[in-house]
Design brief:
The structure holds 2 protein chains of 2 kinds. Chain A is an all-alpha fold. Chain A has one domain: ABC transporter involved in vitamin B12 uptake, BtuC, CATH 1.10.3470. Chain A is built from 13 helices and 2 strands. In chain A, α4 packs antiparallel against α5 and α7 packs across α8. By secondary structure, chain B is α/β, with parallel strands linked by helices. Chain B is built from 18 helices and 22 strands. Chain B has a 6-stranded mixed sheet with strand order 6-9-10-3-11-12, with helices on both faces. A 6-stranded mixed sheet of chain B has the order 18-19-20-15-21-22, with helices on both faces. The longest helix of chain B is centred in the middle third of the chain and has 16 residues. Classes of the chains: A mainly alpha, B alpha/beta. The interface between A and B is medium-sized, with 27 and 36 residues.
Chain lengths: 315, 520
């Protein structure tokens, strides 16, 4: 294989290769890991929340920004749905209101970034804390449980496949289409590539910034509801720190923090990588405390390996 | 590789070729940027490097600065062969480069910039500190030498571009440079600043410094240069003594054909009772960079805007286009008042703008040519403020292919990244983008900046044929010959206001310049 060919191969399949390396490593580490299809499904299921949050994060990163509030927004949506469901509100209304809450938070993020002309890092660092505070105030710090059966049903299995995996697949397809086939999707890439050029080309950069942050929060909200369904209770601290996994999934998946680069397909693989690391460590009976240390190290190692090989290829 | 040369040794090489590049070839994947090119430089001379964009001048400079290692060929400095020149090795060999995009650090003082990386130190109570007295005294000496009257402790962010350039020259002097490479040093300077720059260059020559001078401004070359080496498509053409030749002789050598400053196409005559199609009334920018601008353009006309850099022409156009805020002003198209709050509104109502600075406001580094060209077109078709619509890959690629042929964009195909094209071709892609939008009013801000001579005339021809098809064209340019040969009428700006309007048949460079500058 020539250098150029390998480069284009690595650009397309680099993330996949890393994922395969992880699979092999875990299979060697624990014989229970790989051979069972049930565990592969489990791996995917554990990845779903990460992928959904990463989908959202992707749009913030695509613009060369970042969204540190996805974890809190996810938690907020979960709490709204749980709270309304306990009051006997119909499922559809619960879900719609939960997602609207997320959209509102995303809108606030976008508007603040535009109005104050601050880097999204600063704005979402602040709103993350505010949104988490709102979650605590709403619940008084106590988890909401004893939820109606339909909530748990959101993560039930259909013909052996967990519903969240289906949600991710459907949303993933929609987002692939959105980012590659629609004018709005392409404009987000343009804006991430060069904000000034985008402005002079007629793209309304402020409205598109709001759009990206609404998408970010909406997808985080969906992630939060899936999280709620899987756990079966709404914790006011749920999803804390998940923004780091979401960001990691995007970067492992090939998105550039400078903006304008990345693919939904890569984000999915990035999310699965995070889920696989999580699942693999569970199966190997690594303690929850140690898991964090190993997880963080593996995130850095995955990105470093990706970069190392890319750099080697480029030379 | 670091070679230390003693000053004595440098002195001995004074009248021979100090720097020699023999049979240099530089290959990149798929491209031969330099093909067996030779070049030499004597101390105390200005040796001009001339060639169209993509001729290989920048590559040659990058080899001398140690950024590229040539595929083959030999470099000798002061008679010694120098292999694998690195950026540090280049500096060790007393080569200094002043790039078009200056590399001074804005938040450091003039003196700190000059001594960057080698600040003088002294011991104070056992602690090593910067010796500010020495630093300022020493900097002052060099600043005086080139005639820059600034306090060395001034922050670089507070001085003008031409002064920043002079700081770079002073920095080169204080590093004892024997060779200074200047890449289009006058491209963003006013007339007075250019004159001052030439004085400095004369001074450098007297001090036995060799200067490699890159410029597209031919009259300037005649004024300042001693010898000229012409490159064409990466190949060596000729080295000539400048005193032996006329400026117009150089052009055919660069392009292989003679370009005459003849009016492009036929001038558009305006009937006495004709109504203008596009009218701007009392436009004032919020930041005051242009004030009370009134003008009108007729359908099928090319209206030129002349003036010195910073006179407010581009600022006025940005205001019309909605890219920057205006505090007052109205724009009418065919008698109808337009509401423009941003470029999207402007584009929707038929106004297009090719901006001056393609790197900052022109193209997208992450887009291939076809996407680049499609961006605004797809926005124009889109509704809800530019949020609806699908990407039409096939037709968009077809359109892009049409324009790459029409403007003869040198590329491997429409899938090539705009980023990887040469400057001139990047600009052509941006022009294609707006041609594809098919608006009625076209604002071209320095449309031929950084575009080679051949492509320039193609663009004038395209602009004229667009005008003949009934488009209305506004052209801001700092190159008077192109304004005179392209525009039907010319408006002159001075300090943010209109200071003159000329019909192109009565306009001359002299008349325009008189309107553009302050006489007192």
């Amino acid at each position: 294989m020539t250098k150029e060919k390998f480069q284009s191969f690595w650009n397309k399949f680099g993330t996949l290769c890393i994922l395969i390396v992880l699979f092999i490593a875990f299979s060697i580490g624990s014989p229970k890991f790989f051979p069972q299809p049930a565990n592969l499904i489990q791996c995917l299921l554990q990845s779903t929340v990460y992928i959904l949050l990463a989908f959202g994060e992707f749009f913030a990163i695509l613009l060369g920004g970042i969204d540190l509030s996805v974890g809190a927004v996810a938690c907020f949506s979960g709490i709204i749905v749980a709270d309304l469901s306990l009051k006997g509100v119909s499922p559809v209304v619960c879900l719609i209101v939960g997602l609207l809450g997320a959209v509102l938070f995303g809108f606030i993020n976008g508007v603040l970034i535009n109005a104050l002309d601050l880097h999204p890092f600063v704005v979402t660092l602040g709103t993350n804390t505010i949104y988490r505070g709102i979650c605590l105030v709403m619940t008084g710090g106590n988890p909401l449980f004893n939820l109606p059966k339909w909530v748990k049903g959101l993560s039930a299995y259909i013909v052996g496949i967990p519903k969240p995996v289906i949600y991710v697949a459907v949303i993933g397809i929609i987002l692939v289409a959105f980012t590659t086939k629609t004018v709005a999707g392409r404009n987000l890439y343009a804006l991430g590539g060069n904000k000034q050029s985008a402005w002079y080309s007629g793209i309304n950069t402020k409205k598109y910034t709001v759009l990206a942050h609404i998408l970010s929060s909406l997808l985080a909200g969906i992630g939060g509801i899936v999280m709620l369904a899987r756990v079966g209770a709404a914790e006011p601290t749920a999803g804390a720190g998940y923004e780091t996994y979401a960001i990691a999934a995007c970067i492992i998946g090939g998105a550039s923090l400078f903006g304008g680069k990345g693919r939904i397909w890569g984000v999915i693989l990035g999310g699965i990588t995070i889920g696989t690391i999580n699942n693999g460590l569970n199966i190997m009976n690594v303690s929850a405390f140690w898991q964090k240390i190993v997880m963080g190290s593996l995130i850095i190692a995955s990105v470093a390996l990706e970069k190392l090989i890319s750099n080697k290829v480029r030379k | 590789m670091a070679i230390k040369l003693s000053p004595l040794f440098i002195g001995r090489g004074a009248h021979m070729e100090y720097l020699k590049m023999n049979n240099i070839t530089m290959k990149f994947p798929g491209v031969v940027a330099l093909d067996n090119v030779s070049f030499d430089l004597r101390l105390g001379e200005v040796h001009v490097l001339l060639g169209e964009n993509g001729a290989g001048k920048s590559t040659l400079v990058k080899i001398l600065s140690g950024i590229y290692t040539p595929t083959s060929g030999e470099i000798t400095i002061n008679g010694r062969p120098v292999s694998d020149l690195t950026p540090k090795g280049s500096a060790d060999n007393k080569i200094a480069i002043i790039y078009q995009e200056l590399s001074v650090v804005d938040n450091l003082s003039i003196a700190e910039n000059m001594f960057l990386g080698k600040l003088p130190t002294k011991k104070k109570m056992g602690i090593t500190v910067v010796d500010k007295e020495f630093l300022y005294a020493e900097s002052e000496k060099y600043l005086k030498e080139i005639g820059l009257k600034k306090n060395p402790s001034t922050l670089v962010q507070d001085i003008s571009i031409s002064e920043k350039q002079q700081v770079e020259i002073a920095k080169a002097l204080c590093s004892n440079a024997k060779v200074i490479i200047m890449d289009e040093p006058t491209s963003s300077l006013s007339i007075d600043e250019t004159k001052n720059m030439f004085k400095i260059i004369e001074h450098l020559k007297k001090n036995n410094i060799g200067i490699i001078y890159i410029s597209h401004k031919l009259p300037e070359i005649k004024e300042i240069g001693d010898r000229v080496t012409i490159l064409k498509d990466g190949k060596y053409v000729k080295t000539l003594n400048i005193s032996d030749l006329e400026v117009k002789d150089l052009v055919p050598l660069m392009i292989g054909r003679e370009i005459k400053d003849k009016f492009v196409g036929t001038k558009r005559e305006i009937a006495p009772d004709e109504q203008p199609t596009f009218v701007v009334k009392n436009l004032t920018r919020k930041d005051g960079t242009c004030r009370n601008i009134n003008f009108e353009v007729y359908k099928g006309e090319i209206l030129g805007f002349a003036g010195l850099i910073g006179a407010g022409r581009s600022e006025c156009m940005e205001g019309i286009f909605g890219a920057k805020t205006i505090s007052s002003g109205e724009v009418y198209y065919n008698g109808k008042k337009l509401k423009i709050h941003n470029p999207y509104d402007a584009m929707k109502q038929g106004i297009a703008m090719v901006t001056e600075n393609r790197r900052e406001t022109g193209f997208f580094p992450n887009f291939p040519i076809w996407k680049e060209i499609a961006v605004s077109t797809s926005l124009k078709k889109s509704t809800l403020g530019g949020f609806t619509g699908m990407v039409q890959t096939k037709s968009e690629k077809n359109i892009a292919e049409k324009f790459t042929k029409k403007l003869s964009i040198k590329c491997t195909g429409v899938n090539q990244m705009t980023y990887n094209l040469s400057g001139g071709n990047q600009q052509k892609v941006i022009i294609s983008k707006w041609l594809a939008v098919d608006s009625n009013i076209f604002i071209f801000d320095e449309p031929t900046k950084g575009i080679d001579v051949g492509a320039k005339s193609e663009i004038y021809a395209i602009m004229r044929s667009m005008a003949e098809e009934g488009k209305t064209i506004i052209m801001v340019s700092s190159e008077m010959p192109e304004l005179l040969s392209t525009c039907d009428r010319i408006i002159v700006f001075r300090d943010g206001e209109i200071s003159g309007i000329f019909n192109s048949d009565e306009a001359t460079e002299e008349k325009i310049m008189l309107a553009a500058v302050h006489l007192s």
